[in-house]
Specification:
It contains 22 helices and two strands. With about 575 residues, the chain is mainly alpha-helical. It has one domain (about 35-505, about 515-564): Up-down Bundle (Amino acid/polyamine transporter I), CATH 1.20.1740. It has a two-stranded antiparallel sheet with strand order 1-2. Strand 1 (about 45) and strand 2 (about 50) form a beta hairpin. The longest helix has about 35 residues, at about 330-365. It is globular. About 45% of the residues are buried.
Length: about 575
């Protein structure tokens, strides 16, 4: 049974001094588990600042001002997920299947909200990053496995972002040997500024540029009636096929990525968001999920227009091919699409790289905050710069297997997704970690179904990537049947156990709203070890076996493809 590894708790943070005339905010009743003291203090967002020594107001204007100061982590993580790989995937869906896969995007909204809302609570309540929590609560194996996989997956993802940069600027005739180094220098310069607010403002500038998708979609002469009907009526143009099923899985995989969990939790912590502001960060997350789906739908609509009336319909190549197809309709539209691809690549690279540096600082107990200057957090910023520069260099290597890297990213994301989702759910049900903020029963049921579906899609993606002769449609049907049977058996067993044990008193019962808003996880060294049930222990062992076998087979497949 894994146990918590002792960690040296930081000294309790003293509350900031109150300004004249301000009502003091309630102080914490216990020391916080926050690992970096730079994560404590006033909230400094792109659009405002919140002094923690001032009591919250119920006034509508003040609420709006507070939301504007809080907004950021949810919007950035969502829009950042519409990166180079996302743009290519949505463009392929539109060019090959018309509007018929829009319904998949609509179904992803609740998935995104449920997953990311859980990491919002983890970040605000614990003050500790996702990687560190897994390492402390579930043992070194899972900690290092999660972080190791994250580092590899994120590095390969950053490589694909620079592939997107090279494709976008190739539309304007710019050599990748010029485009990629400039993009890398821009990414490093934005982040090494030593100011959270400046970094967040830069991210909002890129988010603003991504809104070019809206006029681009409107200028693509969409058939509004068909767009509306395909959003709500499931279907696949040309019927169900293995290719279509794999594309649907790719849409889910590129929209619900493992790095999002690590990034938003750490970014919430770095922005100094506490339980008092969880409702605002939830609103930020919901807004981001809506924006990301609107952006994905816009790319799909634009790609339909790019291939309409040409031989390119049903024959997607890459995002540059879509830009050139649009350019045949209108040079301006092609240029706007290339700019959107460039913007998406840089924003995605920034978020993915930062999630890796956050995890690096969390696991090795280093200073890891954008509030710190370079001289005060050299390892944190150096890891960021190194990732960017090495990933950019890979794209510039002559005859580098960029296509193999792109496929590998998708497959490795499929391998990592089950463990990330399962541990997210376990952490959100750990009373030692979240106390009164643990998942309510209805959310556990919904999240269990979502995690089960993600595991099923992950298994299908991994199986079809490793064994190309497997029929994807049949694989999905069989795994769906197994998933349904497993969830039904788990629900029956849970009902029997609850009937035997009687009603359970939820953590924090009887706690006032003010006490709940100020509750934070105690230092990690003070937490009781995880006590797993036999069923949970067996499930985690099976998950470990699945991950080990999948990684070995993935490496074998990569070597085979590379040799070919």
């Amino acid at each position: 049974m894994p146990s918590a590894r002792p960690a040296s708790p930081p000294p309790p943070a003293s509350p900031p001094p109150a300004s004249p005339g301000a009502r003091p905010a309630m102080t914490l009743a216990q020391p916080s588990a926050v690992l970096d003291e730079a994560h404590l203090g006033d909230i400094e967002g792109a659009f405002g600042r919140i002094r923690l020594d001032v009591e919250q107001s119920s006034d509508m204007k003040r609420r709006l001002v507070t939301f504007l100061a809080i907004v950021g982590p949810g919007l950035i993580v969502m829009v950042g997920d519409n990166d180079a790989g996302g743009v290519a995937t949505y463009a392929q869906a539109g060019q090959d299947y018309g509007y018929s896969l829009l319904w998949v995007l609509l179904l992803l909204i609740p998935v995104l909200i449920v997953n990311q809302e859980m990491v919002v609570r983890l970040g605000a309540v614990t003050g500790v990053g996702h990687a560190r929590l897994i390492n402390e609560r579930f043992g070194k194996f899972w900690g290092w496995f999660s972080v190791g996989d994250l580092f590899v997956l994120n590095f390969l993802t950053i490589v694909t972002e620079f592939i997107g940069v090279s494709l976008a600027l190739a539309y304007f005739g710019v050599s990748p040997y010029i485009a990629v180094p400039i993009a890398a220098a821009l990414l490093v310069g934005i982040t090494l500024s030593g100011s959270f607010r400046r970094w967040e403002r830069a991210m909002f500038a890129f988010i603003g540029a991504s809104l070019l998708l809206i006029p681009l979609a409107l200028l693509s002469h969409p058939y509004y009636g068909q767009v509306a009907s395909h959003f709500v009526i499931p279907g696949i143009q040309g019927g169900i096929s293995s290719k279509a099923v794999l594309l649907i899985i790719a849409i889910v995989g590129t929209t619900v990525a493992p790095w999002q969990l690590f990034f938003q939790q750490s970014n919430v912590i770095d922005k100094r968001i506490t339980p008092r502001f969880i409702r605002y960060e939830r609103a930020d997350t919901v807004l981001g999920s809506l924006v990301v789906v609107v952006g994905a739908a816009a790319v799909l609509v634009v790609a339909v227009y790019a291939g309409r009336g040409t031989g390119l319909a049903g024959h997607f190549t890459d995002a540059l091919g879509t830009a050139r197809a649009l350019g045949d309709h209108s040079r301006v539209l092609g240029a706007i699409f290339a700019i959107v691809l460039l913007d998406a690549s840089i924003l995605g690279a920034s978020a993915v790289t930062l999630s890796t540096s956050y995890a690096f600082g969390d696991v090795f107990n280093l200073k890891h905050s954008l509030h710190r200057k370079f001289r005060d957090a050299k390892s944190f910023y150096a890891s960021y710069a190194a990732l960017v520069l090495v990933a950019a260099s890979v794209v510039l290597i002559p005859h580098a297997p960029l296509g193999l890297i792109t496929v590998g990213v998708q497959a490795l994301a499929g391998v990592l997704l089950p463990s990330a989702s399962v541990f997210l759910l376990l952490l959100c049900n750990d009373p030692e970690v979240l106390g009164p903020w643990v998942n309510p029963p209805w959310l556990n049921m919904l999240a269990s179904v979502i995690v089960g579906v993600l595991v099923m899609l992950s298994g299908t993606l991994v199986a079809t990537t490793l064994f190309t002769h497997i029929n994807a449609t049949a694989t999905v049907i069989w795994l769906s049947a197994i998933l349904t049977a497993g969830l039904t058996a788990a629900a029956i067993r849970l009902r029997i156990v609850r009937a035997r044990l009687g009603p359970r008193v939820p953590p924090g019962a009887g706690m006032s709203r003010a006490e709940r808003s100020n509750w934070r996880m105690p230092p990690l060294a003070l937490l009781k070890p995880v006590d797993w049930s036999p069923g949970t222990k067996l499930s985690v062992l099976l998950l470990r076996a699945y991950l080990v076998v999948s990684v070995v087979l993935l490496v074998v497949a990569a070597v085979r493809l590379g040799s070919a």
